[in-house]
Design brief:
heterodimer; A: mainly alpha; two-stranded antiparallel sheet; B: mainly alpha; 3 domains; 77% helix
């Protein structure tokens, strides 16, 4: 290994930023952001599907179909699609598109993969957390394992599936090789990687092995 | 005639023969005694540690010109003749070492000269590297490495940057770390309201923890 010339700047890495949060229970903001991303994605796909359906009907019958919110058939189709979307992705690998974007994964409460049956149960009871005025989500803020009501019923947990330590090393590698720095990562935001880690001190389980199936940035 | 003169004459003639006879007898007796004595047994009964305790080690050491002595010694030949393990087993090394001013001693030693006399290749050939490596806790060594400094100040960082899918992974990292930052800010705020200490995100689930420990 060749020492980099000119690297005379004293280096003092924030000690706690070396820790990984992989496998730890995910917090409210990440879960909410992932849910919003999922809603955007699944709604976008649904609208594309409606447009494709409309296009196909127009070609076949030369008549246009107009959809609106009062159309009960569209609502039923939408909620069926929502059910399929969440149940399918949670059952496949515990990740929806939003979960993958924000590095979240659904596991059983003891850390195993979620089975298809449990994914269906979770999807069915998911609306309960909304229907009781959102109180079902209080468990994420107050519970020791950050579980919402639907998590408790389905015996599942949501964990961070990305490695904050690896992300920090990637950031440092960009810093040491400026030509490769991706947009959005500026020299003025060294603390953007897990700022809570830098402030929060020690994390338990920093030697956590990756949950199954996750390795890349989309994990 | 002096009666004693005769005796003196006799003594003058006999004395050399008697001395020669005595010398022969003495040599024979000493040889017999030495043959009869088991020196190893005697040495085994000597408490070397007690002897060492009585010796003022500093004094002879001060009088020795160590460099001159070492220059005249064929260390390799000497070391080959010594069963160091047998000697060391009998000696309480700690005690004499405690009494020696090693710093003062080492100041007087020309280490370069000693090293030049030693055939390091031969020494290394005798070393069982596997046994040495087995005794090393590589994990403990790895934990002492400042990986962040390594990545930032060496070409390893450039290698990682080139090998990772830069833009996508960078954006994902930024998005995730910001939301985790909000997670932790909320968690600390809630903990403060509940007047409980906050030590970081809880977890992980039992099986993940067990897998990490195995």
């Amino acid at each position: 290994m060749i020492a980099r010339a000119g690297g005379a700047t004293p280096f003092k890495p924030p000690a706690a930023a070396r820790e990984s949060i992989q496998g730890h229970y995910a917090g409210f903001a990440s879960r909410f952001a992932a849910f919003v991303a999922d809603v955007v994605v699944l709604t976008g796909i649904f609208l594309l599907g409606l447009a494709a359906f409309n296009f196909a009907v127009r070609i076949l019958t030369r008549e246009s179909v107009h959809f609106d919110r009062s159309n009960i058939g569209v609502l039923i189709a939408y909620f069926a699609w929502v059910f399929i979307y969440f149940a399918l992705f949670w059952g496949l690998n515990g990740r929806t598109a939003g979960g993958a974007l924000f590095g979240l994964q659904v596991l059983t409460d003891d850390g195993d993969d979620v089975s298809g049956r449990r994914a269906i149960v979770r999807t069915v009871v998911f609306p309960l957390s909304f229907l009781i005025l959102g109180l079902g989500f209080l468990g994420i803020l107050l519970g020791d394992r950050r579980r919402a009501l639907h998590d408790v019923i389905a015996a599942t947990v949501v964990v961070y599936s990305w490695d904050a330590r690896a992300a920090r090393l990637r950031y440092l590698s960009y810093s040491s090789s400026p030509g490769t720095r991706p947009p959005g990562l500026t020299p003025h935001q060294p603390a953007h990687l897990s700022p809570q880690v830098e402030e929060g001190g020690q994390f338990p389980g920093d030697d956590m092995v990756p949950p199954r199936g996750q390795s890349g940035p989309s994990g | 005639m002096d009666p004693l003169a005769r005796l003196r004459a006799v003594r003058g003639r006999l004395a050399p023969q008697m001395e020669a006879t005595a010398q022969v007898i003495a040599e024979r007796v000493i040889t017999l005694v030495i043959d009869a004595v088991d020196l190893n047994a005697i040495l085994a009964r000597i408490d070397l540690n007690a002897v060492l305790r009585q010796v003022n080690i500093e004094e002879p050491i001060d009088r020795i010109q160590i460099n001159e002595v070492l220059a005249r010694v064929d260390l390799n030949a000497a070391l080959e003749q010594v069963d160091l393990n047998a000697v060391l087993r009998r000696v309480d090394i700690e005690e004499p070492i405690d009494r020696v001013d090693l710093n003062g001693l080492l100041d007087r030693v020309d280490v370069n000269q000693i090293v030049q006399q030693i055939d390091l290749n031969e020494v290394i050939v005798k070393v069982d590297l596997d046994a040495v490596l087995n005794r090393i806790d590589m994990n403990a060594i790895a934990q002492r490495i400042d990986v962040e400094a390594l990545v930032e100040h060496t070409d390893l960082g450039a290698v990682i940057a080139r090998s990772s899918s830069g833009i996508a992974s960078g954006l994902f990292d930024a998005i995730r770390s910001r939301t985790v930052g909000v997670d932790e800010a909320i968690a600390r705020w809630v903990a403060r309201l509940r007047r409980r200490p906050y030590t970081g995100p809880p977890g992980p689930p039992a099986k993940l923890r067990a897998a990490a420990g195995s």
